[in-house]
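Re: the request from the purification team.
They wanted to know what the chain is likely to look like in 3D before they choose a buffer screen. I agreed to run a prediction and write the result into the notebook, where they can find it.
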Amino acid sequence: MKRINKQKNKAIRILVLAFAFLASAGPVWTQSQHVTPDGKGNITFIPGVRMQVRYEYNDIDQNNDFYIKRMRWKGKGNIFDVASYNFEIKVDNYGKFNQAPQAQLEHAWFTFPVIDELLTFRVGVEDDVFSRNALTSDSKLLFMDRSQIKEALTVLGITDNTVGALIYGRPVGGHITYSAGIFDNLGFNRSGSSSVLARKSQGAMTVARVAADLLDPANPNGSYDDYQSSYIGQGQHLTLGANVANVVKTELGDDVFNLFAWGVDLFFNYGPFSIEAEYDKYREHFTETSNGPLPDINGDGYFVQTAYLVLPKLELAVRYQELDQDHDLAHDIMGGKMKWTSLGANYYIRDHTFKVQAEYTFKQEEKGNEINNDILQVQLQLSF
């Protein structure tokens, strides 16, 4: 009973915080600009919220789980017509079985336009510039979650949010997008303990990406990460992208290795039809070891997904993906190759702002590592 009451009190505190935020945001939304105390300039503020309520049933836990997959409080605005800012606080997996969520900083950056369309500078906690799938907002994904290879790269600190500085631009009227940056690899900012090896990187992580939009151009003044996995029947897009990432002197316990990753991706849609594919590969090359020479760790993975808008608001989708976290070592060390097939349906009540998603994933592991872990998920999303 004490645990239940504690959970209820936590829920009440989060709801009170959310309502307080929205209550204060109301007048700000309608009057988003105010004069600074020195009276010499203006700062604007636009609030936002993202909430994803999810139902999940998986064969492992055999548990009907209702929880808040993602809860975000956001804010953005303009600073004296010189720069813009963006921040986002998250509380993910609240109420999920066997999880202990905490509030965390998700985004916090300053953006400085230098030359329209050609050069923009950004610094802070931002999206790393690797992988279209990683750069697509979780509010605009075709399926509820990103690919397995993306998650494997996140563990290595290559994808997802990190701290650093980058430049990007969209020349040729938005038909070319480039981005490059230097980042702190947050995946290797962990202190040692009795159960977790010390992880750190002595060298800054360098990442670069280039993409070409051969049909409809991207927004020339948009951001390098404003992708969608579904344009809900709008436009004609053919986007080809490639990215690389490199980190040197990465430490895992007493072992030191260099980490290198590269990937390519493709997206195409024509009216109601869309298809997206991505392949990523990484290598951990050991330069110093405590117990003799170690072989390189080579991992890779890919996914292919396609969708069709059968009705103006109803979209059916299918995705196949594979992940091999090390195809050179014994598979029982890294868990073997994973092969997942997902069938999904999306109902867009109001585009990506308010929608319902449902999917069933068949999970298959390499022979010798099979487990019953298929999963059914249904999600309602509000995002603005």
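For the purification team: The first strand starts at residue 33 and ends at 35.
Please add any questions underneath this entry.
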